[in-house]
Amino acid sequence: MLSLEEAQSRAQDLVAAARRAGADAADAVYACNASTNVSVRLGALEDVERSEGEEIGLRVFIGRRSASISASDMNPATLATLVDRCIAMAGQAPEDPYAGLAPEDRLLRKKLPALDLADPFEPEPAQLRERAMIAEEAARAVPGVTNSEGGGAATGRSQMALATSHGFAGAYAGTSHSTWASVLAGTGADMQRDHASHSVRHIVDLDDADAVGTRAGRRAVARLNPVKVGSGVMPVIFDPRIGSSLVGHLIGGMVGPAIARRSSFLLESLGEALFDSGVTIIDDPLRLRGLRSRPFDGEGLPVERRALIDRGVLTGWLLDSASARQLGLQPTGHASRGGSGAPGAGVTNVHMEPGRQSPGELMADVKRGLYVTELIGMGVNGVTGDYSRGAAGFLIENGAVGRAVSEITIAGNLKDMFRALAPANDLAFRYGMNVPTIRIDGMTVAGG
Fold it and tell me: How far apart are CA 136 and CA 217, in angstroms?
């Protein structure tokens, strides 16, 4: 794995070569990752996997024509060929009036913010194995657990460097540590499966392995003996580990390319109150040790904490430079970039601010409803906002979570769901996207 300085230099050299070969403008992105994953099952080692990979991508512009190409071979001769091919491809590409690098006057010129994303500690495979064993053993020790899909532990490091021909160069690294377990409860056709996991940047922030395993076991046992639910309209409570998917659908409708294509259910909603005034949703790329934190976006623009929804109101779109030009707006620092191809748009660490009520208070007046812990399928129309997904969880009766339920479908329209959404006060930062417990009234439920 190259050092950050070497990675940045490699990207800069490739851009310089493209300019010498005749490109009017160019950018290059270098990405590499290395990870070790150890998995166990039924108390025995099942797999030890080590993977390492690196890729460099080049994008060139000749007038309004552009092309991109990538390679995993860092040999200088290969990179020289890469430049020649990319230049030739760009010459044959159709013109795009919106193509181009990010505006030069908006590039990040300051020192990169320190986000504490890289942990110097790297556990040995034996330590990963021990953690995986502890997690699975704790899960299997929960009364009612009858089988295991395994436990695991992993560690990894990734690095990213970006260079552009109009003056940006930057690089950063991040690490990851994770533990997981997945087990089954019950027997025969009545078996139920569930899991638990935790991932962090620094090992000191990782949940104890036995806590992860116990959580997996208890979740599986709680799902035993599910009952059928009659169809009807009722309140639905979303567990925090799956409620974030609702914010994901919101973001899918906010990205610039969807708006530019006029293929979003939010097209006419800019500046409108989509949610109750008690709902605020934040995108924070500068969160220390955040799972999706980054010091700059995929085009070299500065990033900042921003309210996507401010007291219920949709504040704006998430724009890369191309979609911003198409819409006559400025890019917002939300460009995302892979090894090849043009940038898209996306978010980083997103969370919904907590409400004032506890989860118990949030559901206290629910006579009959659902507490959903699993969503199945992807029946969401990003153009109309129509929402229909399979689900499993627990019945709520007289304000209390009770019997397990399965084989149900919940449906509505995202705009109606957003207006009816109420958050609890139990926000915890555990994922790249975090929400508290969420209640949505008036959803259509179809039983199995």
Answer: 9
